[in-house]
UniProtKB/TrEMBL annotation:
Species of origin: Spirosoma linguale (strain ATCC 33905 / DSM 74 / LMG 10896 / Claus 1)
The protein's name in its UniProt record: TonB-dependent receptor
Gene3D superfamilies, A to Z: Carboxypeptidase-like, regulatory domain (2.60.40.1120), TonB-dependent receptor, beta-barrel domain (2.40.170.20), TonB-dependent receptor, plug domain (2.170.130.10)
GO annotations of cellular component type: cell outer membrane
Domain Outer membrane protein beta-barrel, chain residue ranges per copy: 388-793
Superkingdom to which the source organism belongs: Bacteria
Pfam families: CarboxypepD_reg, OMP_b-brl_3, Plug
Record bears the keyword Transport: yes
Record localization: Cell outer membrane
Length: 817
């Protein structure tokens, strides 16, 4: 974009004075009423080519004027005299096109050239030299984009490291992700859902290597085209795309807490593309926590539980993806992809328990060894067909998806007296299977070639069939070695969900740069659950009418503002509804709740953006989010010190805040960007008679410096005052990282050395929680100091091109928490 602007300014400065003078003199003798207009499109994708240079000349070759095409590819010359003219179209990456000998006359003063196609260049590049990079943070009409590929500190890391630096996102020490304080998010991978991300987001992100991520899109006010699921908003992780030609990459990371190896190879031709990528990784987690919890009875202490837990686990995972796309012609494309992933997430720990009664006498003291395993796997098929039309932005998309996931959990819990005598044993298995079918149709219709008025309509159907078979075996008093089947805690849970949705959206904009986008989405959901024993079945049906509205104005070339409102819903999924009790720690039980209902959230936002002449960028966003039937995890504690956690629709959740994001550079080698959030959050529950609120803030800063001889440095840091929950609050926490990179082999290979939290060992964070039945303090210690070395190599030959991405299903209704 900058190159095109510079090209245009240079072109205007070099206009021949004689041509301008000639036109000026001639205009005194004849009225200048002629007009020439047209629209420039890519010949392959039929999409607009913005910022292309259009030069207008006389038939004798004298240049009269120059224009830059708009974002919709349009241009217009007015006030022209009758005569013969020549038009020349140029843009980087495209072949130059010249139109000669078209005339304006008194009888025909206007010429509408219609659609003008530019053909992409197909010259092969022996070497790719990047002379400029995108800013780390970019703003688009409905989202903020973090260009992760330009961030050195991500090398050798995972998606957790990437999301930690994305605007408006917060990622804590354990990898839990929040957008403006909400963990009810829709996280997509290349615009499509992922069973991997839906089940356990914090763990799944550790499987995706940062080296494969191109950018992260943060969408706070999704349009009607997006599924209504996700009260916090939508996060879309974009992986790197294959360019034309045959090329690949290899990334190997070695570190004291992270190891990975992965790569990709692809072949792209004019009509055909085939890409394969795969990765395997291992990440170690080490932590120690101490909790003191006092049970309350009528407001008075009824007992005290002390626990010390230590964990040291290695999480291993892998995934692979095979993608195929084929263009029958410039208007018809089909794409097919097969993805698979799997791994094991152990959560084993050693635990010391001590319980004192109300008189302060120790009634229980034991050690516990928990060996918990969570193997999982998934395979997913996507098939899409795109029918484009000659009119820009007009297209019909048909999509289908089938996925199958198994997610098994098992644990063995052994208790011993302080001197090592076995006193209790328990084992559990929970086998879960989830096939899913999705069909989707989307149609986009522009009312004019300018693309200023666009209508979108579509429909979607999802079918999920989930089963969970869980069984508990435990010992009895005096027979520790004999495990008996526990009928009351074992069951077979079958859960079906059907979602039918339709939407319509209208986008209107005018020449004064006002833009209005409004839409509605109607979703009908049916949840059915059946049990093999004792628990009665349930059937829940609900319909949600979801409006969305966005009004924006381009105040000037460098300033804009936007105001938006939408509603979002969060449906309870199987792991929220399944009454299976996880009792790997008998003092801390957790289970799902079949009585959960969906929550409805209202989102409003007002934002302002400014870009200075020097390229500095500032975005301010004031927002309000309100959920009246918020799904929150509620904990109760009895007088024996046993905690039971279950999710309930019992709270009202309100949050008002201001986001600030800024970027700039001190010179051509030193770039800086950062942001912050200042907000007030409030939880209230009439049913539980609980209120919790407070003011909080967080800041982050990212700096990069380019050194001579292909060396570069980068530093990142963030600080947060903590989180407020319904029944408690986490203390402040921080994260910082440093990285240095050396490029070699004609910049096709690099070595990146990165360190995380080098001066922190260990990191400490406290949690305070309370209710009418307990008061607790937890002190956590996490090992976050790590070092890693990453070797990256890009090989093969590529060519410049402009290929559209294949379309895939976006199941952003599958909740990722």
């Amino acid at each position: 974009m900058k190159f095109a602007t510079v090209y245009y300014i240079t072109f205007i400065l070099l206009l021949p004075c004689g041509a301008i003078a000639q036109q000026s003199v001639s205009s005194t003798a004849s009225q200048s009423i002629g007009q020439i207009s047209g629209t420039v499109l890519d010949s392959v994708t039929r999409q607009p080519v913005p910022f292309a240079t259009v030069a207008l000349s006389t038939s004798t070759g004298n240049v009269l004027a120059g224009k830059i095409t708009s974002e919709t590819g349009t241009f217009m010359f007015s006030g022209l005299l009758p005569g013969s003219y020549t038009l020349r179209l140029t843009f980087v990456g495209y072949q130059t096109r010249t139109l000669t000998a078209f005339a304006l006359t008194d009888q025909k003063p206007g010429v509408q050239l219609g659609t003008l196609l530019l053909h992409p260049e197909s010259r092969q590049l022996n070497e790719v030299v990047i002379t400029g990079q995108k800013a780390l943070i970019e703003e688009k009409s409905d989202r903020l984009v973090y260009n992760a590929a330009n961030d050195l500190t991500n090398k050798g890391g995972t998606a957790v490291d990437v999301l930690r630096k994305a605007p408006m996102l917060t990622v804590d020490v354990t990898g839990n992700v929040q957008l403006r304080g909400s963990s009810n998010l829709k996280v997509l991978l290349n615009g499509r859902p992922s069973g991997l991300l839906a089940r356990n987001l914090s763990e799944a992100l550790k499987m995706i290597p940062a080296n494969t991520i191109q950018s992260v899109e943060v969408i706070t006010s999704p349009s009607a085209r997006y599924d209504a699921e996700g009260s916090g908003g939508v996060i879309n992780i974009i992986t790197k795309k294959q360019l034309k030609g045959s090329s690949g990459n290899l990334d190997v990371t070695a570190g004291n807490y992270t190891q990975s190896i992965g790569g990709s190879y692809g072949v792209k031709r004019e009509k055909f593309g085939l890409t394969f990528s795969g990765n395997g990784n291992a990440e170690r987690e080490k932590s120690v926590s101490e909790m003191t919890r006092i049970s309350l009875l009528n407001g008075q202490p009824a007992g005290e539980l002390f626990q010390r837990r230590s964990a040291n686990n290695v999480h291993r995972g892998w995934f692979g993806d095979l993608s195929l796309d084929y263009a029958f012609d410039t208007l018809n494309r089909v794409n097919l992809s097969i993805s698979t992933w799997g791994g094991a997430w152990p959560n084993s720990s050693s635990l010391y328990n001590r319980f004192r009664n109300a008189e302060g006498i120790v009634t229980q003291a034991y050690n516990q060894a928990v060996n918990q395993q969570e193997p999982f796997g998934n395979i997913e098929f996507n098939l899409g067909y795109t029918r484009a039309f000659k009119r820009p932005k007009q297209e019909l998309i048909l999509l289908g998806q089938y996925s199958y996931t198994f997610d098994n959990t098992s644990y063995t819990s052994d208790q011993f007296t302080p001197i090592g005598v076995p006193i209790y044993r328990e084992t559990s298995t929970n086998q879960s299977h989830n096939p899913q079918y999705t069909f989707q149709l989307d149609y986009t219709h522009p009312f004019s070639s300018s693309g200023r008025q666009v209508f979108e309509v579509g429909a979607k159907a999802i079918r999920r069939d989930v089963s969970s078979r869980y069984a508990i075996y435990n010992s009895s008093v005096g027979a520790v070695d004999v495990l008996l089947y526990n009928v009351s805690r074992s069951n077979n849970f079958v859960y079906d969900q059907q979602v039918l949705a339709t939407y319509a959206s209208l986008k209107l904009s005018n020449q004064t740069k006002w833009m209005l986008q409004s839409g509605v989405r109607l979703e009908n959901t049916i949840n059915e659950g059946r049990f093999a024993d004792s628990i009665p079945p349930f059937r829940i049906q609900f319909t949600n009418f979801i409006p969305s509205l966005t009004l924006s104005k381009q105040l000037s070339e460098r300033q804009s503002f936007k105001i938006s409102y939408t509603q979002r819903i969060s449906r309870p999924m199987i792991w929220d509804l399944n009454p299976y009790i996880n009792a790997s720690d008998l003092k801390n039980l957790s289970a799902g709740n079949p009585q959960l209902r969906p929550e409805l959230t209202h989102l409003a936002e007002l934002s302002y953006s400014l870009t200075t002449k020097s390229g500095a960028y500032l975005n301010l966003a004031l927002y309000r989010r309100e959920t009246n039937n918020s799904i929150e995890e509620v904990r109760t504690v009895d007088t024996s010190g046993v905690s039971r956690s279950i999710k309930q629709n019992v709270a009202r959740n309100q949050r008002t805040g201001l986001n600030v994001n800024a970027a700039g550079q001190f010179n051509r080698n030193w770039k800086i960007n950062g942001g912050g959030e200042f907000y007030h959050t409030q939880f209230s529950s009439t049913a539980l008679q609980v209120q919790n609120s407070g003011w909080l803030w967080q800041l982050n800063l990212n700096m990069a410096y380019q050194l001579p001889q292909n060396y570069s440095l980068q530093a990142y840091g963030m600080y947060s005052t903590g989180w407020i929950l319904l029944q408690g609050k986490n203390s402040a926490w921080y994260h910082y990282s440093l990285a240095a990179r050396k490029e070699f082999w004609d910049r096709k290979a690099s070595l990146t050395l990165g360190v995380n939290n080098p001066f922190t060992q260990p990191f400490r964070q406290n949690n305070e929680s309370q209710s009418s039945s307990f008061r607790a303090h937890t002190a956590n210690q996490y090992v976050t100091r790590s070092v890693k070395l990453t070797f990256s190599w890009q090989f093969g030959q590529i060519r410049a091109g402009n290929e559209p991405a294949g379309k895939k299903i976006i199941n952003d209704d599958a909740k990722a928490k």
